[in-house]
Amino acid sequence: MKAVQDLEGGPATPVRAGFIAVLTLAYVGAFIAFVPLLSLLVPLQAQSLAPADKIGLLSLVTLWGALVASVANMAVGWASDRTRHRLGRRRPWIMAGLAGVLLAYALIAAARSPLVLVAGVMLFQLAFNMMFAPLTAVLADRVPDGQKGRVAAFLGLGAPLGAASGVLITAPLFADTGPRMTLLGLLVVGCLLPFLLTYREAPAAGVPERRSWSIPRLSRDFGFAWTSRFCLQIAASVVNAYMLFYLADHARYAEQFPGSTVESGLARLIALSTVLVVVSGFLGGLASDRCNRRKGFILLAAGLMAAGLMVFAGWPGWPGPLIGYGLYGVGFGLYTTVDAALVAQVLPSRRDAARDLGIMNLTNTLPTVLAPGLVLVALGADRQSWPQLMSLIAVIALLGGAAVLGVRRVR
Question: Is the pTM of this model over 0.85?
Fold first, then answer.
C-alpha cells in the first residue's frame, strides 16, 4: 500500500463543549441501537425460535447481518462523501438510517420464523450502517488532531452506556420482545435528535462537482491500524454475540443463582463493568493526548482484554465471569477510545473520510462474518468447548495489540 498526501489540511478550529456533548449523545444512541439488540434481544429470539440449535441460528443471523453491514458501511460512506444537500453531507444519511432502524426493530419483534429473524437483522444492519457510517466521519471532519483523543474519550462513552442500557431493556417491566423493542427505539431517537437538530455543515464542503469511484491508495500505517483493529474486533464479536450462551451453558449462571434469568445476569454483569469501561476509556483518551502517544495504550488494552478472556476460559465459577468481564471491559474501553483517535490520524484523506472509514469498518463487520464459523469450529460438535474458544480469541487479541507497532506516523 502506498502513502497518499491529502490535498487538504486537517480541521484547525477547536470544537466546543456543546458540539462534543451532542456528538457524544449521538454516539451513545448509536451504541444503544445495536449493543442490547445483538447481545441480548436477538440471541433470545434465536433461542425462542430454534431452542434445539440456538447457536446455529444465531451464527446464521450474525453471518448474514455482517455481510450486509460490510457492503452498506462502505457504500454509504462513499455516497455521503459525495452528497450535495442543503442539510450537508452527513445528516440526510443519518436521518434515513434512523428511520430504517425503527422499521427493523418492528420486523425483529414480529419474527415468528428463523427466516424473518434473518431478514430483520439484515434490514437492521443496512439501516444502522446508513446511520453510523456518516456519524463516525464527523470526528475526522470537524475535530483537530490535538483534540481527537479528548473527543474520542467522550465518544468512548457510547459503548459502555449502550451496553448498560441492556439493564433497562431487560427490566421486569419490559418482559416481552415488543415493549423492549419499543423502549429501544425511543432511547435511540432521543439520543440522535439533538445532533440532527443542531449539527451544521456546508452543503457540499470539500466535495468537487463530479467525482467517480476510484480504488483508494491506502497508507502502510492505515494497513497496520486496520489489522490491529481486525484482530481485536474478532474478540469483541465473540464476546458480544455469545456471552449469553457462555453464561447459560458453561458458567451455569442459572444454577449458581436460582431464580435469576441468564439475560438479567448478563445485563447486570455488563452494568457492573460499565464504570470500569468508562473510566479506562476516558482517562486513556486524555492521557494519550497529553502524552501524544497511542500505541502503548492499545498494547495495554489488548493485554487486558486477553487476560479477561483467559479468566473466562479457566474460571467459569463465580466470581470468575465477573473478574473476567471487568478485565475485558477495562481493556475494551481503553482500546475503543485510543484506537478511534489513532485511526482518525492515519486516514489517507479527510475529503474521503467516510469512504476510508467504511474500509476501516470492515474490521468490525468481517470479524462478525468470521466469528460464527470460528465459534462453531472451536466449540466442537457438542458446542461445549468454551475454554478452547476463549483461549483462541485471547491469542487473537494479543496479535491485534502487536500489529499496532507497525504504525509509524503515530507514536
Answer: no
